[in-house]
Design brief:
The complex is a heterodimer of chains A (about 180) and B (about 850).
Chain A: H1 13-24, E1 51-55, H2 63-70, E2 76-83, E3 90-98, H3 101-110, E4 115-116, E5 119-120, E6 122-126, H4 161-174
Antiparallel strand pairs in A: 1-3, 1-6, 2-3, 4-5
Chain B: H1 6-9, H2 23-26, H3 39-48, H4 58-71, H5 76-92, H6 97-107, H7 112-132, H8 135-147, H9 158-174, H10 180-197, H11 204-219, H12 245-258, H13 269-276, H14 281-284, H15 329-344, H16 349-357, H17 390-402, H18 412-425, H19 427-443, H20 450-466, H21 487-502, H22 505-510, H23 537-542, H24 550-554, H25 558-569, H26 574-590, H27 597-611, H28 616-636, H29 638-651, H30 656-668, H31 674-684, H32 695-719, H33 726-759, H34 763-767, H35 773-814, H36 817-824, H37 827-846
């Protein structure tokens, strides 16, 4: 039954949205809540998920710091740092895998949206880490969100890479300080 | 999904003005057609929001909902929504129980069938909760019924309470260690005030008679109270008498009976209505019979505290009362509602925090001073008016859970997060309250249970990490000079270390005033500690960061050690390593080292740490590669196995948190054994007891113990799965008895190590007896504090296993023992379990 307050241990709109697009193509946006699942459809991949995607980390946050915080919700089985595809340096996300599903849910409830290294971090339930997913999918190797970010974020490499490039080009063409 | 948070957002809440791309569409958007909310949603929204807002008049809200329901009673959707949601609010948002009850009382004169239906449903619900042993829900539904006492025929809830009491008596006579009976009495005592504050009258005698009966059970001091005393004190005294919740409650209610049941803090939303229109409501209101509720006999056990609950407050000794004193029944009534709210709503800490901030909305108007009233301003409060700060009362309740012994209901980080959110929602109100709580906890850290000291430390550092690491360290500046073995200094060092682990050394140093600077050494900023066998090491010895005595110990091995490092780095096959390792062992033998495997292990493990120093993943893959050899070390020599720990902790001695983590992983690989870790900490590194002062040593031992106890628990849970075939049960029983043996041995080793320190009989200690009496007393205190923690842990774990195993037996009994014996073939085990339980009770008592 629906609880009288929202639960914080539900997958994010991002995750649900992504799945919807995959299933129905971009245009369909029907709400499929409450629809009966047909037998061919796979079970909810998050039913026993013990892995979390963790986002909005600083590029400088270390594995040890992440471990220190996330171990408060249970023993960590594996921690995979998100890396820049080209430079193999941290690019601001990671996967934390617990031994238990419940620990991952608790982490959503108690740690997602709190601070690590003085940044509000985001957690999302994840069906499980697969090799290759540790790399940024942005054009220049980092995360897509860091490509076109027009706010300056010192913890994540300054301006978005594409924006920074543009600024640099402008500077080169028109001279410094313009 | 729920409506709770929706209010904040609104349809355009997430719109980001910085983004220009939608600007042109903006004006052309067609105006949305006015949307009439379906009535059942309107009922839902109003009911969920009842009493929530300090800006709305609660009596108007109540009559508006009542009117909606009465006017639209034909609408099945509305009826269903109202009935379902009302009862759901009762068990999910306990603050609102009196207000939901008030709605029914208002509806009753016009539509008595509404109350009838609710009562039927409530009775059905409570029946289910009783049968499942869900005692919190039983308590909350009972409270709801007690608030409706005025609608009930005859004696209302009292016969039910009396029957509950007779069950408690049965349980108490059966065993002196019974905790379930106490829980029942607590439920009775927490129901009485609501029945007495209800619209019903004339139950004074009845309540007093019931109180007389509960007195014997509630007032008898529990044998195990001392085990969960949060302030057992130390050698210099400081002990505080623990006050059991149930005992306090009994006294407070007796006091309240003497003051004609004033019960000032309980809201009376049902009263307002009566004053307004005296015409028909009160008179014409139809009364209802409480549907029959059968309390099973014996009652079902269920989740409940196994050890007595102690009333805990961080605001007890202030010169102005900011929370109700323990002589006032309000302290128990407020605390109970708050604790339930906190523990029920763990699925949404934001909702919990909002309830805490809005606490004053749910109790009678005169209960608190205005929100965020500064502590100093309380002196100006008129004589006779309340000085209770709602935020202090709320924060106090969170701390009572965070610092609950033997364990809290949820993971401790939940309570951290509630305080963080509360602080975010209302910083001006909450932050000063937290400040006073921190000061009080720190001031009393010397006499506090050691486990609680570490919970406090963990919360403190985590909390600061969410708020820019700002704390007024200048307040404690005098304590910087204290010796390391002083509990306050140890707390300070531990807290700083924890802060660094969540951040980094330079950042934390930057938050500290000048006198604290030496507490964070330069060496902590170094990412990769030196490989001690390299010549670089001379430098660090010169600046005095390493104990100089190590120099002579390692120098003879430096060449082969460097070779080991080179080979490991080159990922050479393991066989190549034998030669340099043998060289070390031969040299060691020629130097007369008793166990030559020890220095070779040191070189090997130090090289692994050095190569893996970049991150946890690096050291893990390094360990993975060296797994076989590491495993073989322990098999050959126990001393060498413990050397692995020494080498890891020595390499990471500036960042012990990393060392502890590596040790933990080595345990998972079974390269280390739990006993070896405990022996390392409580024998090898113990000294005169100085080892006990370090927070990371406690962390290491306590996480090792938890690993072992969790394993035992997992086996018990697996064994108790319904429908497990008999042969598998037998296998699991065997494993269980083996693991319980191991657990017992582990606790015995801990006991051995600590008893020496606590009793002052460690060899070194005797020698220096006259040199430093004060220091020695402090170390004895540390020994005693450690001992309490692990004795309690042992008692709790053993009791848990007993209880869980015997619960299964009871279930089997109920469903027919013969069948169970046939299926499981464990008829004997049934008998054994019962026999052991007796001895277990004695064992629990013996600990004191």
């Amino acid at each position: 039954m629906q609880t009288t307050v929202d639960r914080l241990d539900k997958p994010s709109a991002y995750y649900l949205g992504r799945n919807k697009k995959r299933k129905y193509g971009r245009d369909r946006d029907d709400d499929d809540v409450g629809r009966q699942r047909t037998p061919e459809e796979p079970e909810d991949p998050l039913k026993d998920a013990a892995t979390l995607y963790v986002g909005n980390l600083s590029f400088y946050t270390t594995e040890e710091q992440i471990h220190e915080l996330f171990a408060k919700c249970g023993e960590i089985k594996r921690l995979v740092m998100g890396l820049d595809r080209f430079h193999k340096t941290p690019c601001g996300f990671c996967f934390v895998e617990y031994y238990n599903h419940q620990d991952a849910l608790d982490c959503m409830k108690y740690i997602g949206g709190t601070k690590l290294d003085e940044r509000i971090i985001r957690t999302d339930l994840d069906p499980g880490f697969q090799e290759g997913r540790q790399y940024g999918r942005g054009k220049s190797g980092g995360q897509v969100r860091d490509e076109y970010r027009d706010e300056y974020d010192p913890g994540r490499g300054g301006y978005g890479r594409a924006i920074a490039e543009e600024r640099q080009k402008e500077e080169d063409e028109y001279g410094k300080g313009r | 999904m729920a409506d709770y948070d929706r209010r904040n957002g609104g349809p355009r809440g997430g719109y980001n003005n910085n983004r220009k791309r939608h600007d042109d569409e903006h004006d052309r958007r067609p105006q949305r057609r006015r949307y009439e909310e379906p009535l059942h949603l309107k009922v839902r929204k109003q009911l969920l929001g009842v009493a929530e807002s300090p800006l709305k008049r609660t009596d108007e809200e109540i009559s508006s909902i009542a009117k909606l329901v009465v006017d639209n009673y034909d609408d099945e959707g509305i009826r269903r929504q109202f009935f379902d949601l009302s009862l759901q609010i009762v068990v999910e948002q306990p603050f609102k129980i009196p207000f939901v009850a008030a709605i029914l009382i208002v509806i009753n004169p016009q539509k008595p069938e509404v109350a009838q239906e609710i009562l039927t449903r409530a009775a059905k619900a409570i029946q289910e909760y009783l049968e499942a042993g869900h005692w919190r829900e039983v308590k909350l539904v009972l409270r709801f019924l007690a608030c409706l006492q005025g609608l009930l025929e005859e004696d209302g809830v009292f016969p039910l309470l009396e029957e509950l009491f007779s069950r408690a008596v049965d349980l108490q006579t059966a065993s002196s260690e019974d905790s379930l009976g106490l829980e029942l009495v607590k439920i009775i005592l927490l129901t009485i005030p609501y029945a007495m504050a209800s619209s019903a009258t004339g139950f004074e005698e009845r309540a007093l008679a019931l109180l007389d009966k509960t007195d014997i059970i509630a007032s008898t001091p529990h044998a195990l109270e001392a085990l969960v005393n949060p302030y057992p004190g130390n050698d210099e005294g400081d002990a505080q008498e623990p006050q059991s919740i149930i005992n306090l409650l009994q006294k407070q209610l007796q006091g309240e009976a003497g003051q004609s049941w004033k019960l000032a803090c309980i809201p009376r939303p049902w009263n307002v209505r009566k004053e307004e229109d005296t015409t028909d409501t009160a008179v014409a209101s139809k009364k209802h019979a409480l549907p029959e509720i059968n309390i099973p006999s014996p009652v079902a056990p269920g989740p409940r505290p196994m050890l007595p609950e102690i009333y805990f407050s961080v605001y007890a000794d202030q010169d102005i009362e900011t929370v109700p004193s323990t002589s006032d029944v309000a302290s128990s009534i407020l605390r109970d509602s708050l604790v339930d709210t906190i523990n029920i709503l763990d699925c949404n800490r934001n909702a919990t925090a909002k309830f805490l901030i809005d606490l004053d909305c749910y109790f009678s108007a005169e209960t608190f001073v205005k929100r965020a009233t500064q502590f100093d301003k309380l002196r100006n409060v008129e004589e006779g008016r309340s000085t209770w700060k709602p935020e202090d009362v709320a924060v106090d309740a969170v701390f009572s859970q965070l610092l609950q012994l033997p364990m809290a209901e949820h993971k401790l980080v939940y309570y951290h997060s509630v305080l963080t959110e509360a602080c975010k929602i209302a910083p001006a109100a909450i932050a000063p309250s937290l400040g006073r709580a921190i000061r009080w906890l720190y001031k009393n850290v010397d006499g506090m249970d050691l486990e609680l000291v570490y919970r406090f430390m963990d919360w403190f550092s985590h909390h600061l990490s969410n708020f820019g690491f700002t704390w007024k360290w200048t307040e404690w500046v005098d304590d910087v000079q204290l010796p390391l073995i002083h509990p306050k200094k140890a707390f300070m060092m531990g807290a700083l270390e924890k802060e660094i682990r969540l951040s980094f050394a330079a950042r934390i140093r930057g938050t500290l005033p000048e006198p604290y600077q030496p507490l964070i050494s330069e060496a902590k900023e170094k990412d990769t500690p030196d490989f001690k066998y390299s010549s670089d090491r001379k430098h660090s010895i010169l600046v005095g960061l390493e104990p100089t005595k190590l120099i002579s110990k390692e120098m003879p091995y430096s060449e082969p050690a460097k070779e080991i490092l080179r080979l490991l780095r080159a990922k050479a096959p393991d066989t190549d390593l034998q030669s340099p390792l043998s060289t070390i062992e031969e040299t060691a033998e020629s130097l007369g080292v008793t166990d030559p495997l020890v220095p070779s292990t040191d070189a090997y493990v130090t090289a692994i740490c050095f190569l893996g120093s970049k991150s946890l993943s690096h050291v893990l893959s390094q360990i993975e590669r060296c797994k076989d050899r590491l495993l073989s070390i322990g098999a050959k020599s126990e001393l060498a196995r413990r050397q692995i720990i020494t080498s890891v902790m020595d390499y990471w001695h500036e960042k012990p948190g990393i060392g502890v983590n590596v040790v933990d992983k080595l345990l998972n690989y079974t390269i280390l054994t739990p006993i070896s870790v405990v022996l390392w900490a409580l024998s090898d590194q113990l000294g005169k007891g100085e080892g006990l002062v370090l927070s990371h040593v406690f962390e290491m031992v306590s996480s090792t113990v938890t690993k072992v106890t969790n394993r035992v628990r997992q086996i018990v849970v697996a064994r108790n799965q319904p429908g497990l075939p008999g042969d598998q049960v037998a296998i699991l029983d065997e494993t269980l008895s083996k693991e319980r043996d191991e657990m017992g041995k582990l606790f015995a080793v801990i006991e051995d190590g600590l008893v020496g320190v606590a009793g002052g009989s460690v060899d070194d200690m005797a020698e220096s007896a006259d040199q430093d009496l004060k220091g020695e007393a402090m170390l004895r205190g540390w020994g005693g504090r450690w001992l309490r923690v692990f004795r309690r842990k042992m008692a709790v774990e053993e009791a848990w296993v007993q209880e869980t195993m015997s619960f299964v037996v009871q279930v089997v009994d109920a469903s027919g023992l013969e069948i169970a014996v046939e299926q499981n073939g464990n008829g004997e085990a049934v008998g054994d379990g019962a026999g052991e339980e007796m001895s277990e009770d004695e064992a629990l008592a013996g600990i004191l």
